[in-house]
Design goal:
Number of helices of chain A: 3
Number of strands of chain B: 4
Structural class of chain A: mainly alpha
Radius of gyration of chain B: 22 Å
Shape of chain B: globular
Number of helices of chain B: 6
Largest interface: A-B, 48 and 63 residues
Strand order of the largest sheet of chain B: 1-4
Oligomer: heterodimer
Strand content of chain B: under 5%
Largest sheet of chain B: 2 strands, antiparallel
Largest sheet of chain A: none
Distance between the termini of chain B: 51 Å
Distance between the termini of chain A: 157 Å
Structural class of chain B: mainly alpha
Order of helices and strands of chain A: HHH
Order of helices and strands of chain B: EEEEHHHHHH
C-alpha cells in the first residue's frame, strides 16, 4: 500500500497551505488521553461479540453445516438404495417380458400345430367323403349297367323268340337261346 | 469537513478526531463514551444482528443472510485449517470474531460521516498486542522452553549465533508493531485520500466531476482494502499461531 502513502504525501505537500489540522495540532491518533476510553470500550464490545460468537453463533453455524452434510450423505444413500431397487425392478420386468414372450411363442406354436391337425382332419374327412361318393356312384352305375344288361338280354331273347317263331316250327326254349347268345 | 469559517480548508484528519459523547470516569481514568466507542458498539450490534438474522431460520437450503454467515464461517475455517491445521480449531472463535470485527469496522468506516475504529493505533495495537501475548503464551505452554529454540534456527553455525539471535528476537518483537501499524496506516491513508478528493470536488466547482470520477474509483478500491486488510490481519494471526504451535518448521 505504499502507493497510498505516496499519494497522501504528494497531495499533502501540494495542498499544504490548504490543509488544516484539528485544534491542538497533530494526529488525533497520538492523543494518549483517549487511549483508556478506547481500550475500555474495545474490551467490552469485542468481549461481548466474542462471547456471542463463541457461545451462540459458531455452534449454531457448525450444527447447521454438519446437519446439511449429514442430510446430503443420507440423501445420497437413500438415492443409491432407490437406484438399486429400481435396477432390480427393471431386471425383474425384463425377465418377465422374456418369459412372457417365450410363453407367447409356445402358445403360437401349439395353436399352429392344432390348426394343422384340424386342417389335416378336415382334409381326411373330405377325402373319405369324396371316395365314398365316388364308390357309391360307381356302384350305382354298375347296378344300372347290370340291370340294363339283363334287360337287353331279355329283350334279345324275346326278340329272337319272336323272330324264330316266324321261321321255325318248334318254339325255342329260353334256356337254349341264352346258351346260344353267350 | 471544511469548517464554516474557511470554506476552502481541507482537513482530512478531522474525521479521525475523537469527541466525547458522555463523560464517564473511574477514579482518575477517563473512560468516556466517545464516537469511537459509539462505532464499536454499532459494529458489534451490526455483526450480532447479521448473525441473528442469518441463524434465525436454520434451513438446509440457506437464505441470503444465512449464506453470508456460512460463507464467512467457511472462509475463516478454511483459512485457519490451511495455515494452522486441525490444532487451530480451538482458536477459531477468536480468529473468526477478530476478522468479523475488523472487517465490519473497516466497512462501516467507509460510510460518510462515520468513524473508523481501526484507524486508531491504540485499537489495532490492542489487537496485535493481545495476539502477540497470546501466541507467545501458547508457544511456551505447548513447547515449554523449547519454544526459545525458534530464535536460533537449525543449521546456523554457532559463531553466527550472536548476530542471528538478536535479529530473530527483534523480528519477533516487531511483529505486533508491523501488524497494528499496517492496518491503522491503511485506514488512515485511505480515508484521508477520500477526504482530500472530496475536498477537490468542492474546490473545483464544475470541474469537480474529474476528481469525482477518481473518488468513485478510490472508494471502490477502499472497499476492497477494507476486506483485504481484515484478511491480512487474520491470516497473519493464523501464521503467528502456527509458528507457536509448530515452531520447528
Amino acid at each position: 500500500m505504499t502507493f497510498f502513502w505516496k499519494i497522501v504525501f504528494l497531495v499533502s505537500i501540494i495542498l499544504w497551505p490548504q490543509i488544516g489540522f484539528t485544534e491542538g495540532g497533530g494526529l488525533p491518533q497520538m492523543d494518549i488521553t483517549t487511549f483508556p476510553s478506547q481500550l475500555f470500550w474495545l474490551i467490552i464490545t469485542f468481549g461481548i461479540l466474542y462471547l456471542f460468537m463463541w457461545r451462540t453463533a459458531i455452534p449454531k453455524l457448525r450444527n447447521t453445516i454438519e446437519e446439511r452434510q449429514d442430510k446430503i450423505l443420507l440423501d445420497i444413500n437413500e438415492a443409491e438404495k432407490l437406484k438399486s431397487e429400481a435396477e432390480e425392478t427393471l431386471r425383474e420386468y425384463e425377465e418377465k417380458i422374456q418369459s412372457a414372450s417365450k410363453e407367447a411363442g409356445e402358445i403360437i406354436n401349439q395353436a399352429k400345430t392344432k390348426a394343422d391337425e384340424m386342417i389335416d382332419n378336415i382334409k381326411k374327412q373330405q377325402d373319405l367323403k369324396l371316395s365314398q361318393m365316388l364308390s357309391d356312384s360307381k356302384d350305382r352305375i354298375n347296378k344300372h349297367y347290370e340291370d340294363s344288361k339283363d334287360q337287353i338280354e331279355n329283350a334279345k331273347i324275346e326278340s329272337i323268340k319272336l323272330i324264330s317263331a316266324k321261321f321255325l316250327t318248334e318254339s325255342l326254349d329260353d334256356e337254349d337261346i341264352r346258351k346260344e347268345i353267350n | 469537513m471544511a469548517s464554516a469559517k474557511e470554506p476552502n480548508l481541507i482537513d482530512p484528519i478531522h474525521q479521525f478526531a475523537i469527541s466525547k459523547l458522555a463523560d464517564i470516569k473511574i477514579g482518575n481514568i477517563d473512560i468516556s463514551f466517545t464516537n469511537s466507542s459509539q462505532f464499536m458498539v454499532i459494529t458489534t450490534i451490526a455483526i450480532m444482528f447479521l448473525f441473528m438474522l442469518g441463524l434465525s431460520k436454520r434451513s438446509i437450503i440457506p437464505n441470503r443472510f444465512q449464506m453470508i454467515c456460512e460463507l464467512s464461517y467457511n472462509f475463516i475455517a478454511n483459512l485457519l485449517r490451511a495455515n494452522v491445521g486441525e490444532q487451530g480449531r480451538d482458536y477459531f472463535p477468536f480468529v473468526f470474531t477478530l476478522f468479523m470485527f475488523i472487517f465490519f469496522c473497516n466497512l462501516i468506516g467507509l460510510i460518510p460521516y462515520t468513524f473508523t475504529v481501526t484507524s486508531h493505533i491504540i485499537v489495532t495495537f490492542a489487537f496485535a498486542g493481545l495476539i502477540f501475548i497470546g501466541v507467545t503464551l501458547i508457544g511456551f505452554v505447548k513447547n515449554g522452553l523449547g519454544y526459545l529454540r525458534m530464535f536460533y534456527p537449525k543449521g546456523v553455525p554457532i559463531y553466527m549465533a550472536p548476530i542471528i539471535i538478536p535479529i530473530e528476537i527483534i523480528s519477533y518483537l516487531t511483529k505486533p508493531v508491523s501488524l497494528s501499524v499496517r492496518l491503522m496506516a491503511n485506514m488512515l491513508a485511505g480515508h484521508s485520500i477520500i477526504k482530500i478528493f472530496a475536498g477537490f470536488i468542492v474546490m473545483m466547482g464544475f470541474f469537480g466531476i474529474i476528481p469525482l470520477a477518481g473518488l468513485v474509483a478510490i472508494y471502490a478500491l477502499e472497499v476492497f482494502i477494507a476486506f483485504l486488510q481484515a484478511y491480512i490481519f487474520t491470516i497473519l494471526t493464523c501464521i503467528y499461531l502456527n509458528d507457536a504451535l509448530h515452531p520447528h518448521h
